[in-house]
Amino acid sequence: MSGILLFVILAPLIGFLINGLFGKWTKPYAGVIASLALATSFILGLFPIMSVLNGHIVEYSYFTWLPFKEVTVQFGLRVDALSAVMLFVVTFVSTMIHIYSIGYMHGDKGYSRFFAYLNLFVTSMLILVLGNSYLLMFVGWEGVGLCSYLLIGFWYEKDTASDAGEKAFVVNRIGDAGFTIGVLYIIYYFGSATYSNVFPRVEDVLSPAAATIIGLALFLGAVGKSAQFPLYIWLTDAMEGPTPVSSLIHAATMVTAGVYMVARSNAIFSMAPIAQEVVASVGAFTAFYAATMALTHKDIKRILAYSTLSQLGYMFIGVGIGAYWTGIFHLMTHAFFKGLLFLGAGAVMHSMRGLLSIDLMGGLRKKMPQTAALMVIASLAISGIPPFAGFFSKDAILGHALEFGHPVIWVVGEVTAFMTAFYMFRFVFTVFYGEEKVPGLYHELHTHEAPSVMTIPMWVLGIMSIIGGLVGLKIGGHIPFEHLVTQIAPNTEIPNEKHYSELILIGTSVTMGLLGILSAWLVYIKKIVTAKSIANTFKPIYTLLANTYYVDEFVAYCIVKPFWWVSEHLLWKIVDVKIIDGGVDAAGWLAGRLGLLFRIFQTGFINQYAYWVTLGFIILSGWYIVKII
């Protein structure tokens, strides 16, 4: 088993090396090589997953990685209930995205480079979730950050793409600083970063204050990596990368890392109620805040990007209120339907020659019936409509929020659920239903259904979007998914004495989703009230949302430009040029002047040298005699 577990990581790494080093020769087969590498990783990963399902924890140490005097770090891998879920999600969804990319990226001049980066991305994510210590998690954490930079800016000839890659990299450095501080505190208190040496001793070693500091520091890292408020500003610009990259980032890898890290650190957060409250509150605010921006956007990929921000907020509500399994459950179901949504959007872009605005689309289901059906499935799932996967996980989060004494968060979550259903079916109705908005455009672009290499992975994810939530059904008095995850991340909150009817809670959630769909149908299909009239009636609010609360402008004018001014006028022109360069130049000038002075004594005549030596001898002798007297 140790070799199998190690090869789960090595398989995509080998794919990266083959396409990265020999891409010139492997280009026609780069997609197949990368996909086979991920499929191998997925199949091999089933063995440790089955072992975990049978009640075992799989953990191996392979070699001494960092031999310090007091803290020795082993390179080890661990698969328990939590990492088993992540292993399945990462390898399964990533395999589908790799296969899809063979068709989507066909003909791109960077074909081999793209698949090399994609394999490296998944390798980094697997190190993050399978590593048995915080330091290995940190390696994967930084690895996915690097790969996101490479893939977001993949089409580096475009300024918008390269700028988006830089923005993602810089914003994540802020969060990574917090994560680094948290890990250093853990090493300071425990003398180890290995999970098996840390978590069993948390209650004995940490005070609530120390746990709070570590929890908040770690959560800052999660805010950056999982794009929560206020460090979310990189994620929407990340849409400049190829659409399969967006699907990989949003569904299976980078943005889920923060949720996993908080759930993995449940022993620490459970001792820090303040940190838990911060996690849940930030998640609830981000869920609502991002959903409002998705209501008005017209770029199909950015609508989905804001949707991801909102759904990540739900996940942080789950892990923040202490019901860790609900956050991980939604992470899994979200991977299925969000991966499908982005792949569907990519199929539309592929067919529309890169056009993104929903104002140019309409009636597309006639040209792309399979994509239209799959997008309806995914939209029903994200809207929380039974029996689709999103219903089970979202309902579990909201139900636990109310049961664990967070009524405000429950209300925010329900309102957000309404907005989610509205903006997703605004997307569906506008793009796939109604009439063609620009007559002749589809004929001119030769709009057609995506090829099988793209639609088959979409159907696989579509099926999982339907059945993927069934592990959340109560069977024999317990929920299988909850029973699995709570072995590693137990619930830490005690339900209130008030008991709420499960039917009422489910009914409320479903009703909010159905009302959102109905509202979208009345506006965009029946046109009882047109979207334009609503926008004109609430013009100030619409303008604010359409401009995403002017956050980018605020960041540019209040943060970036002041830092730029300080860097240019203070750090460069004064500190660098005048103080540092000036000091070096002054030292050179002084050395030159002293050289000119001493040049007087360097004439090359022996008699003058003898004169100066004699004079020096007389002066020193006189000083010595005076001192004695």
- Helix fraction by DSSP (H/I, runs of at least 4): over 70%
Mean of all residue-level pLDDT scores: 91
Largest sheet entry: 2 strands, antiparallel
Order of helices and strands: HHEEHHHHHHHHHHHHHHHHHHHHHHHHH
Q: Helical region count?
A: 27
The structural class is mainly alpha
How much strand?
Answer: under 5%
The total count of strands amounts to 2
Uncertain segments are: none
Terminal-residue CA separation = 92 Å
Description of the molecule:
- The chain has 629 residues and is mostly helical.
- Among the domains are: 275-529, no CATH class; 555-628.
- The chain has 27 helices and two strands.
- The protein has helices at 2-26, 30-53, 81-104, 111-130, 134-152, 159-190, 195-198, 202-205, 208-225, 233-237, 243-252, 257-264, 266-269, 273-294, 300-320, 324-351, 369-382, 389-403, 407-432, 441-445, 452-467, 480-485, 502-524, 531-537, 539-546, 551-599, 606-628, and strands spanning 58-67, 72-79.
- A two-stranded antiparallel ribbon has the order 1-2.
- A hairpin with a 4-residue loop joins β1 (58-67) and β2.
- α15 packs antiparallel against α16 (324-351) and α15 (300-320) packs antiparallel against α19.
- It is globular, with a radius of gyration of 30 Å.
